[in-house]
Amino acid sequence: MARKSEIEKERLDDAARAGWLYYIAGNTQDEIARKLGVSRQTAQRLVSLAMSEKLIKVRLDHPIGVCLELAERLQDSFGISFCEVVPSDPESPSTTLGVAEAAAAELERYLMSSHPAILAMGTGRMLRSMAEQLTPMECPQHKVVSLVGNIAPDGSASLFDVASRVGDRVKAPHYPMPLPVIATTVHEKALLLSQTSLRNTIDLAQQADVTFVGIGAVGDDAALLRDGFVKPDEMRAVVKAGAVGEIVGWSYDAEGQLIEGLTNDRVLSVRLSRPAQRKVIGVVMAMPRLKGVRGALAGRLVNGLITNEAMATQLLQ
Predict the structure, then answer these.
(1) What's the CATH code of the domain at 44?
(2) Strands of 118-121's sheet, edge to edge?
(3) Same domain, 21 and 135
């Protein structure tokens, strides 16, 4: 058994070398075969293995004209300070492809700085995918803080605790919020937020140099409903009140105004500023979130956006 494991490790090592030679150093497969002392067919298989095992992550750095134009128009139209638009793949069913990688690259710009920074994280599938795309590194100078609780409705640890994932990935101190996203009652919310241990986390989040948030939908497709944080009748009431989207549990209308009462009275996440006082980047591409993205931009709940061509085009129509 041990021998098989050693052979597999050597095979992955060879694949990593082949992948580096091909994608980074720009070698042809004939050159890789010569340098590794293998046949051209073996070199080709090793390069393919490097990709299939995700040993190589490819990021597109070429400034695609249409995407740049869309980003500039979004900045002008919504008055945001930062925007990145990546190409869309109309045949892909993925709700993170390209955008998660771009968000990881933007986050890495802050992580690679020697100047200490506070990095705040929202939650959701998109940001979890962003965290998985990060290059492992050592960043003890930074602090990674969560805006939202990391406890699922059944009391287990949430799958979408992004701050902890990022902190583990880059070896940075991280500050989770040991809370559910939404309290059962207003009284429970007051009791939970009275914990002195939470004060430091909330203060750090409010001082963040940059914040990354997902933008969620409301209605039947809402993650809050699907993941059990709210009940169907509660979601219907939020929609009836005019909600078009949510960020870290806070529901808001088409103008970006937080909904009065209802589930917002029980949200335990760090409260959203309107307008955002520091750099807050929304990371989103799924089309059911279109109204939510428009509302977040209109209300200045976010002042930065990372999205794809399809979403950008719809936002500008």
Answers:
(1) 1.10.10
(2) 82-86, 304-308, 279-283, 210-214, 118-121, 143-151, 174-180
(3) no
**Each residue's pLDDT tens digit, 175-217:** 999 898 999 999 999 998 888 878 889 999 999 999 999 999 9
Is residue 151 assigned to a domain? yes
Structure tokens of 107?
Answer: 């986050």
Q: Please say whether the beta carbons of 138 and 166 come within 8 A.
A: no
pLDDT at 255: 97
60, amino acid identity: L
Q: How far apart are CA 308 and CA 312, in angstroms?
A: 6
Asked if 135 and 44 sit in the same domain, the reply is no
Q: Say whether pTM exceeds 0.85.
A: no
**Which amino acid type is present at position 55?**
L
CATH of the domain at 267: 3.40.50.1360
What is the per-residue pLDDT for 158?
72
The parent domain of residue 294 ranges over 65-316
DSSP assigned state of 287: G
Is the N-terminal amide bond of 116 cis, ω within 30° of 0?
A: no
Helix, strand, coil in percent for the chain, rounding step 5 = 45, 15, 40
Query: Taking Cα atoms as reference points, which of 167, 129, 121, 119 lies closest to residue 269?
Result: 121
Helix ranges (DSSP H) in 23-178: 29-36, 40-52, 65-78, 99-111, 125-133, 162-170
3-state secondary structure of 92: coil
Residue-wise pLDDT for 304-313, tens only, equals: 999 999 999 9
Listed as ranges, residues in the chain with pLDDT below 50 are 1-2
Looking at the structure of the chain, the number of domains it has is 2
Query: Measured between alpha carbons, how far is 201 from 179 in angstroms, rounded to an integer?
Result: 12
Q: What is the mean pLDDT of the chain?
A: 90
